[in-house]
């Protein structure tokens, strides 16, 4: 095992392994969180393997097969650093991908800068990651995020709340966020965006990420007379959803609830997700591009589940986009690939991917807009066969169903 620490440098291990594909082929390293058990890491591993398999079936890259290395970083910064160094030093990978937890990604940024190997993120969302590039682009330019960051998510959630304010009378809204770095924009920026639309926000609280009793929090929200609660959470959706439903709380639940973005969440939470809503980069029923449905169905055929959030869609798109640039440039060398990738346009599973430029607020995060990437808001509903389905309810042009009010309201 390579020792931890960002001070290790090995000659020949900077900026990819070889300009034309090494003797061991093209190497990709994926840092996944508990693949095989956690839905986030499982989706990253499945999507990465699917991308690599398709590329190899199509002849590989630079005349070589692509080899995918997968490491479980266990949600721990030291473990992630060790696994990363094994990838870039021992395995000599040409690019890395993955990482779900923001705290882990922030810790890895100096390693990525030192070893100068392109990293394409697949799940972390804090704008603090982009700030590294904004502060010192030349040092940190090797990081790309083909799905944006939480600032975009907040704006999308606020837009949806404005829609529900007009359509469903969400006049008073509470905000409830897990205490993690990526949720900070939901606490800081969301209240003002809601108030600008005439929505009253009497409640804005953060709670520990190991919380399992939501009854006191829900009591406080109900005492404020909220019509809905906008949540940002990635670890505590299970108890929150179950208690909301069992206690028949008199407010809707929406926001960015990462765990219920997982297509297997309805079954995993024993149906408690019904009527809950969340914001996501894509679900299989949202036709965001001409590739969305075919990718989702191929993924389902391969794994028996539909793609999960950015963990699947962005990991798959990111690897495919990088490979397209490598084939175009005929090299894996990072100093060539970084500027080419930064200026590339790619038609992916969620729409057109382009990256923000060096002088933007969020360098190398994906561009969002009507002709680029978009976010959707879905609601868990139950179909005629009793199966849970993620139905898009906003934006209107992508909607597959109308909003359903909880039956106990």
TrEMBL record:
<protein>
    <recommendedName>
        <fullName>Leucine-binding protein domain-containing protein</fullName>
    </recommendedName>
</protein>
<dbReference type="InterPro" id="IPR028082">
    <property type="entry name" value="Peripla_BP_I"/>
</dbReference>
<dbReference type="Pfam" id="PF13458">
    <property type="entry name" value="Peripla_BP_6"/>
</dbReference>
<dbReference type="InterPro" id="IPR051010">
    <property type="entry name" value="BCAA_transport"/>
</dbReference>
<feature type="domain" description="Leucine-binding protein">
    <location>
        <begin position="26"/>
        <end position="368"/>
    </location>
</feature>
<keyword id="KW-0732">Signal</keyword>
<dbReference type="InterPro" id="IPR028081">
    <property type="entry name" value="Leu-bd"/>
</dbReference>
